[in-house]
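Session log. Operator J.P. requested a structure for one protein chain; no other inputs attached. Running the standard single-chain path with token output.
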Amino acid sequence: MSKESFKKEMQQRLKEKYAMEIEDASPQELYNVLGSVAKAYYSDAWSNTWKDYLEVGQKQAYYFSIEFLPGKMLKSNLLNMGILDLVEEGLVELGTSLDELAQVEQDMALGNGGLGRLASCFMDSIASCGLPGNGNGIRYDYGLFKQRFVDGYQVELPDEWLRNGNTWEVRKESKAVDVLFGGHVYMAEDANGNLQPIYEGARRLRAIPYDTAVLGYQNHLVNTLRLWSVEIPCDEEDHYRSIEDRRAFEDLTAVLYPDDSNERGRQTRLWQEYFFVSAGVQSIVRYYLRLKKPLEVINEYVAIHINDTHPALCIPEMMRILMDEHGMAWEQAFNVTVKVMSYTNHTIMAEALEKWPVALMKANLPRMYQIIEEIDRRFVAEMNLCHPENPALVQRTRIIQNGQVHMAHLAIICSHSTNGVAKLHSDLLKEVVLHDFYQLYPERFNNKTNGIAQRRWLQLANPTLAKLLDETIGTSWRKTPGDLKLLQNYREDDAVLEKMAASKMMNKKRLAQYIGKTTGIEVSEKAIFDVQIKRLHAYKRQLLNLLHILKLYFDLKDDPSKKQASRVFIFGAKAAPSYTYAKSIIKAINETANLVNNDPDINDRIKIVFLENYNVNLAELIIPAADVSEQISLASKEASGTSNMKLMLNGAITLATLDGANVEIRDAVGEDNVVIFGMTEEEVYQYYERKDYVAKNYYDQSPVLQRVVNAFVDGTIPNIYFEGQEIFDSLLKHNDEYFVLRDFAAYVEAQEKIDQLYKDTKVWQQMSLMNIANGGRFSADDTVMRYAEDIWHIEPVELYSKKKG
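Structure written below.
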């Protein structure tokens, strides 16, 4: 494709679609046309990829996740097709710009944070590594929510990301399937004397797939992200007469994570999980049958990956299809299912491991419950035979206990692989959280440290740095991220260091302009941009960050002449709608920002910016501008983290506890190029064992800490009477669950070290360079290749159609 042919294609399609010339079209209209042009360019490759997989009978992996967070896809698709620069130049010559059109695109709001973004990074990398793998999830009408701040409070608004349609999706009505809910199921003998399930009174919903192309990086391979939407079957409309019935149906794919604080919300979540699992597994089996292979060997052609426990119903659904629809015996169906399934655990906290009340599951998914109950019965019988001396072990590991179905137990027992997402996390799973299962199935446990798609987080998000890297070390890093290591050779090169600093300053100016435009807060790009961007949760300890900011504020109030580097503290985070404590922290941060940002005594030396509606697009703006990467969760709580990887790749210095992948980041860059503080996971677990942590002792012994903590209740921070008391009580009355007070002094010391390091310009630049140079170690390309080799047993393919050509 040439620039001239692209321009002609744009002009022709604009006339066909809108009957107008370029100069008369709106950015939305031009974006729609550009999207259709791009789709036309990759449509043959998409079709050929599927034909190749079918013709060759290639084993494929299917990644099931309740979240996907792809972000904007226009630039990513153009980059992966290898025409990004050409399109940019062509659009300029047509009198518009790619950046202007990209602003029109809505984020595909199908996730909340790290879980969904990881799934999307993996989709990108699976395709870019030439691997046969596809995604399976839900096409939410409204995504999570659009966050707004009103008087400092988080307010949730509908995120209408589909308001102008989705250029990239293709509705595949021919691939629709039916999913059954509720009713009653009992077993009856058929004519051959075999037991068959009989459904009575079940509700049938239609699952419609919307497919989105996932383009490999300049390799002509196009995989598919299949997202399911719900519809009422035409012949079932009489069953949905009331408004209440229709509302329940509409809610099924309306929003990610409906409020589960009531019975209806919990039912909707359970329906969501079964809906996309059942639709996805049915679709996979239907495709597999086209290969004309027996179902007994489906594991040789299909790998299903359960990303966290939300898709764990893949297991009983696969069993249902094999037994009920294809007559396979229980033992064989179970063995095949175990070989097909694999599971990633994403949490260390036991309370976050998903459980469903037996009564809820029996009422809504009766056949699923019957199968799970039988799996549990057989597991218990086998355990009693193998471990008669340890009945407590049997009770701890069974799936159904205390009136609840433990989905993590189901996923571990019925899959061939369970992996953690960072070395520390995987070790804790084996040693603590899932120790019983590790004793039972040691061969199934493994580690796969998370990774990120450097194409989006460096090539797209930070084009100035990417261009500098090309000029300095060549372009091989774009396809082989490990080649970023070559940058280490320039650690003493002042010219390269200065160019990198100039690139960072340009990104900081861009972010400063955005902050000024959207918040009215003026910040200086010469200040340290200190960034904490992640889901708002107590264990991630945004509160610890806030306590330190208050300490700095009081220091300057006491001594305005104090030598202290100017700071801009940047937050981006959403709190779950029903998580009142997290929302109180948001309110406290925003009110502290109003206090500090408007205090003339501070003279702009501290600024606090909490950016609304943190999403992928905003992350792409913040991350290249960051100087400091806040990774301050309580050691042992964060499974991995991926913002830590994105920020280091863009030259930010990691300020961290030894939690999640922070441990591996330290090992990669060396202790001189990170700033580590706080308790280790061993110390945390020692407190748990001894039960001797007393938060008030730290408060009583530190006048600094007293002043900071008291600020929440003594009127220093305005307008937080209830929220401030809640936070104060969480630290002292409820004994500081996440050891914020215990780590406070160490955190302050670490922040002082950041100040000192930043003053030595060359040292800071060298640290930044070393982080970038080692960022390739955390490429999602490497991560998915390990999944492919160790868990899914799939191989990169040379496209059959390409070979024929």
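Operator note: The two ends are 18 Å apart (CA to CA).
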